[in-house]
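Students often ask why inverse folding is considered easier than folding. One informal answer: many sequences map to the same fold, so there is more than one right answer. In these notes we will look at a single instance of the problem. The structure comes first.
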């Protein structure tokens, strides 16, 4: 039977969490203070895994190492035997819970601000009214590319002429 991840992470008996490193999993285990073995597979999971590793409350494992059970067992034992992983996970959790400004409060204040003042043109980005050429800097990029192509062509032509002059022999006429 399937069990919600948040319920699992809130269980006091949980000593370690093995995850692919999705943002949801990393956020939940960070708030709960649970050390992890992170096995990233794609996308943002690699970055999320590095965050866990940098804070030293987990170990990152290469997905190709799953073919060798000894590596997984070694990583699990390392986290369970070394109390610093658990201590660091608890410290990360404590820091997240004691943030000076909580995300709920920020969200509520932004919603109240939007409700009171509505749409404010001064907060719109200047790029909102730009055409595609300006927005993507094509008016700058295209001339630079053409200039680079012309420069490379000229340098190639000069080098070709120099090499040709050096390696062509002149026949003497008596």
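Output (designed amino acids):
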């Amino acid at each position: 039977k399937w069990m919600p991840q948040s319920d699992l992470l809130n269980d006091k008996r949980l000593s370690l969490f093995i995850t692919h490193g999705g943002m949801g999993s990393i956020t939940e285990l960070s708030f709960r203070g649970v050390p992890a073995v992170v096995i990233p597979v794609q996308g943002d999971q690699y970055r999320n895994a590095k965050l866990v590793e940098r804070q030293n409350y987990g170990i990152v494992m290469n997905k190709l190492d799953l073919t060798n059970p000894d590596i997984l067992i070694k990583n699990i034992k390392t986290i369970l035997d070394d109390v610093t992983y658990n201590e660091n996970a608890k410290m990360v959790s404590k820091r997240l819970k004691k943030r000076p400004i909580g995300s709920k409060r920020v969200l509520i204040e932004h919603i109240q601000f939007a409700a009171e003042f509505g749409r404010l043109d001064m907060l719109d980005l200047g790029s909102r009214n730009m055409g595609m050429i300006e927005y993507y800097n094509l008016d700058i990029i295209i001339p630079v590319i053409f200039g680079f192509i012309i420069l490379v062509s000229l340098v190639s032509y000069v080098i070709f002429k120099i090499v040709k002059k050096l390696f062509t022999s002149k026949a003497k006429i008596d």
